[in-house]
Amino acid sequence: MSLIVQKYGGTSVGSVERIKAVTQRVAATKAAGHDVIVVVSAMAGETNRLLELASAVAQKPDPREVDALVATGEQVSIATLALALIDYGQPARSLLAHQARISTDNIYGRARIRNIDSESIMSVVRQGAVAVVAGFQGVDDGFNITTLGRGGSDTSAIAVAAAVKADVCEIYTDVSGVYTADPRVRPAAKKLDRISYDEMLELASLGAKVLQIRSVEAAKRFAVPVHVRTSFSDEEGTWVVQEDSTMENVLVSGVAMDLNEAKVTVLHVPDRPGVAAKIFTPIAKAHIVVDMIIQNASEEGFTDLTFTVPKGDLDKALSMIKGVATEIGAAGVVSSESPIAKVSVVGLGMRSHAGVAARLFEVLSREGINVQMISTSEIKISVVIEAKYAELAVRVLHQALVEEGFEEGAT
Ligand code: ADP
Ligand code: ASP
Ligand code: MG
Fold this sequence. Notes:
Mean pLDDT: 94
Strand content: 15-25%
Radius of gyration: 23 Å
Helix content: 25-40%
Largest sheet: 8 strands, mixed
CATH class of the domain at 3-174: Alpha Beta
Distance between the termini: 52 Å
Low-confidence stretches: none
Bound molecules: adenosine-5'-diphosphate, aspartic acid, magnesium ion
Oligomer: single chain
């Protein structure tokens, strides 16, 4: 007998029919002798609808009230699923974040889970019932409702799994697992049987939204085995687990793209110590995540500094930096005219094999795709390109580095 956390995403609870399918799966797991905690997301499309509603009634929606509004999507889905389970003969109890004791900090829209007092969830489980917990939401010290950022139910599920020491956290979604590329962009993508936490961290941070990045951080930190699989069949999915010695044999395990960043350039910045700190400290204080940074070679004591931020934070970042630019004597701040995409390749095998970068540049140049920025880590290479080439880049890179197999020196 195991303790299993099952997370169902929006599509998996998107209709009466899908909720009935989830009901049967949960009841069958319970009937097989396991204890089950379910974490659910809002029904497909609901979070977007609620966010649009907020923007329709307010020009600058107040963050506290936005969270109070969007968190209702999950209230509907937990109560609906609990109703269906009880009707099916399987005792169940829905729990909102304050009832499940999921405490967060007070950063609305991107709150972090601080603590989960597992007692309240486990008391439901001990009574033989299924605890149906609202994903995506938390509660801060002042009892305000917070939300964890888009895709946050994954993080709720893995944090709950860590708190109750579950044997596995199953993430049920609309694809059969983690693929070598988004299967909607590259239908030839292959499902991975296993992937290490570190590779999944990179893929998630680089745009593969199949798991929210914070959920992978939590899974790694607490060593929670994660099984990403489809709610549409019993097919085995992808296990996200600790690295082992065979994993380095795979050179490139995934290609990802991210269209959610924007590029900012601070022009003609005096090249002296302390200037970068002046620019980036206020941005960090505003909880804006700066991703790539490049600085041009200095010319006569001046340089251009370019970096990327999430699109949603662009206006805020620009207005902050404009003030700083004047203060430090830079010529000005501009954001890129054409939208950008970040395209990345990830693989543990890149640690020990040179040449992936060269092959990547060769493939992109053959398609006439210009590389604007580059960043690398031990196990990934990311490039910023014009957004209109993003899907093409994923396709050709996947073809060259995954489908055809990469041979060292074959550039
Ligand atoms: P859910 O609502 O179940 O949380 P999401 O839409 O958040 O589902 O995440 C699943 C989606 O992630 C898939 O439909 C797929 O298009 C996308 N995706 C992006 N990259 C990958 C990848 N490498 N492997 C699998 N799915 C991916
Ligand atoms: N419902 C939330 C969203 O759409 C959380 C999630 O799906 O994980 O972002
Ligand atoms: Mg998701």
